[in-house]
């Protein structure tokens, strides 16, 4: 290959120039170097072994730094390509033109302006009519939630199914960084190298052990000690689970105890409120709003205030019926496809604020499809008492 | 499942390859394979405009930078099936890449107008 590309032509320059003059080109108007193009002997094999991938600056930068590009997904998924940080949807683009790929070709700026006329042979490595187009998209994390929710951890005797980071990377269409973020944000438990979700009732049980321990020590809600709690409770439940549950529901107050200087913790109100809401919402899909909010506030520990805002991504309030109700609705309960997703949402209630819709639509947006255009395409905007509400495009 | 692609070992910036884009398709006059066959002569004018002569046709084009560069990926044929198989991997080690990023294309020579026939000089004969 190399020899063919650097060597001069088998054709004399006189033949090349004779053809150029026949085509009415003035030789003095041309740069001295002519290049004759040939199909290489292996152009057919190359066309099947080479793939052209259109890449943005981020992808190229990642590759040039020695990073891997990873195509992820199950055979039935539409493919995505991931760098370490981002995810791109992959689409084959067709062109009616022929794309001739050459390993070497001298551009006009690289040719000496003066000198004797000469000709060099150039090999076309392959002809292409398609290339892969990459479009940055949201990580597809629904499978992650399905896998981890299917068989959650319920205690030592029922450990459920755990997944190593490597197994999740096989199944989930997201970059490594996006997968790690999703595992962190969904509070997956990492134990013995495997990720698991805690079953709601079991998580509640472990949290109850923590609140009971707080009561036994007569600590106020702003003077909880982490190390003593973990040390004591890990006799009852696995240390990793206790630590996970503590760190999810408690946060440091930024002060230390007067005796011994141990950092003090208090409840992470939103997380605690959400845990109790999940438990209360479990038995049924729809609840009377007033009954629900009353029993919810009663159930949480002292020092925690509940508010409907904390239900984000767990449930929505429907004020279109009387009495008002709260409806359990997780983003993962909804269809993947955008029109079907909107239909399912509008089946729950007819009018939504943008804020209410957001957690159920986030994964459908991408840098090229912003939330605004997604809503504009699939909903109808009305204003009720000064508040923008989104309803079905074709109201019945 | 995961399919990995990266530079061959120890590579940094991949070599730059070139792309010539032609309207339509190139066909051999005889129905034989195109492999090894001559396509035509490429010249550049002193202004940098590319001119391609293919058979009895002449094409005028221009050199343009691709809006987004193209990566040239080559499927590796030197891998054992086991090395390329990444399914159900239980380790954190990255499996062998099934594709190598062989080159990058940043510019193309685009011939978007239709080829013009070359008309031979009419011999002056009375």
Automatic annotation (TrEMBL), chain A:
Under the heading InterPro entries, the entry gives: Dcc1
GO cellular component terms given for this protein? chromatin; chromosome, centromeric region; Ctf18 RFC-like complex
Superkingdom classification of source: Eukaryota
Q: Which UniProt keywords apply?
A: DNA replication
Share an example GO biological-process annotation for this protein. maintenance of mitotic sister chromatid cohesion
Where, if anywhere, are coiled coils annotated? none
The entry's family comment says: Belongs to the DCC1 family.
Q: What is this protein called?
A: Sister chromatid cohesion protein DCC1
Species the sequence originates in: Amphibalanus amphitrite
From TrEMBL, chain B:
Tell me which Gene Ontology terms the entry assigns under biological process: DNA replication; mitotic sister chromatid cohesion
UniProt keywords, alphabetically = Cell cycle, DNA replication, DNA-binding, Nucleus
A molecular function annotated in GO for this UniProt entry is:
DNA binding
Give the superkingdom in one word.
Eukaryota
Q: Where in the cell is it found?
A: Nucleus
Record GO cellular component, one term: Ctf18 RFC-like complex
InterPro entries from the xrefs?
Answer: Ctf8
The cross-references to PANTHER family, in alphabetical order and at most eight, read: CHROMOSOME TRANSMISSION FIDELITY FACTOR 8, CTF8, CHROMOSOME TRANSMISSION FIDELITY FACTOR 8 HOMOLOG (S. CEREVISIAE)
| Family (UniProt) | Belongs to the CTF8 family.
Q: Under which name does UniProt file this protein? A: Chromosome transmission fidelity protein 8
This protein's species is: Amphibalanus amphitrite
Task: Output the lineage of the source organism.
Answer: Eukaryota, Metazoa, Ecdysozoa, Arthropoda, Crustacea
């Amino acid at each position: 290959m190399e020899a063919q590309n650097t060597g001069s032509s088998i054709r004399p320059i006189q033949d090349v120039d004779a053809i150029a003059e026949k085509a009415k080109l003035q030789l003095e108007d041309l740069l001295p170097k002519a290049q004759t193009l040939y199909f290489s002997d292996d152009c057919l094999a190359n066309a099947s072994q080479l793939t052209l991938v259109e890449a943005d600056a981020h992808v190229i930068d990642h590759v040039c730094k020695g990073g891997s590009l990873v195509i992820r997904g199950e055979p039935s998924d539409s493919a995505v390509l991931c760098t370490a940080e981002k995810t791109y949807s992959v689409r084959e683009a067709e062109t009616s033109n022929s794309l001739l790929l050459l390993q070497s070709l001298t551009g006009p700026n690289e040719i000496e302006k003066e000198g004797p006329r000469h000709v060099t042979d150039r090999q076309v490595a392959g002809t292409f009519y398609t290339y892969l187009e990459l479009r940055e998209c949201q990580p597809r994390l629904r499978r992650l939630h399905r896998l981890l929710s299917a068989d959650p951890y319920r205690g030592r005797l029922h450990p459920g199914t755990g997944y190593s980071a490597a197994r999740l990377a096989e199944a989930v269409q997201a970059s490594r960084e996006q997968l790690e973020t999703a595992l962190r944000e969904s509070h997956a438990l990492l134990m013995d190298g495997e990720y698991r979700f805690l079953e709601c009732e079991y998580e509640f049980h472990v949290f109850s052990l923590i609140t009971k321990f707080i009561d036994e020590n007569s600590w106020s809600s702003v003077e909880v000690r982490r190390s003593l709690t973990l040390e004591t409770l890990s006799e009852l439940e696995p240390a990793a689970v206790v630590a996970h549950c503590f760190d999810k529901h408690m946060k440091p107050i930024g002060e230390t105890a007067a005796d011994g200087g141990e950092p003090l913790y208090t409840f992470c109100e939103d997380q605690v409120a959400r845990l109790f809401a999940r438990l209360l919402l479990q038995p049924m899909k729809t609840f009377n709003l007033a009954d629900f909010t009353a029993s919810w506030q009663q159930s949480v520990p002292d020092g925690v205030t509940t508010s409907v805002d904390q239900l984000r991504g767990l449930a929505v309030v429907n004020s279109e019926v009387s009495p008002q109700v709260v409806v359990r609705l997780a983003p993962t309960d909804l269809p993947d496809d955008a029109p079907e997703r909107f239909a399912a949402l509008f089946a729950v209630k007819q009018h939504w604020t943008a804020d209410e819709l957001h957690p159920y639509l986030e994964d459908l947006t991408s840098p090229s499809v912003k939330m605004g255009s997604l809503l504009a395409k699939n909903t109808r905007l009305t204003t009720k008492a000064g508040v923008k509400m989104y309803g079905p495009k074709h109201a019945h | 499942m995961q399919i990995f692609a990266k530079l061959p070992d120890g590579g940094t910036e991949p070599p730059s390859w070139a792309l010539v884009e032609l309207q339509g398709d190139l066909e051999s006059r005889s129905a034989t394979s195109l492999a090894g066959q001559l396509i035509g002569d490429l010249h550049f004018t002193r202004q940098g405009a590319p001119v391609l002569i293919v058979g009895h046709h002449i094409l005028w084009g221009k050199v343009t930078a691709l809006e987004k560069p193209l990566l040239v990926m080559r499927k590796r044929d030197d891998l054992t099936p086991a090395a390329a198989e990444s399914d159900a991997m239980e380790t954190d080690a990255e499996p062998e890449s099934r594709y190598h990023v062989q080159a990058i294309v940043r510019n193309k020579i685009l011939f978007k107008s239709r080829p013009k026939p070359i008309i031979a000089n009419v011999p002056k004969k009375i």
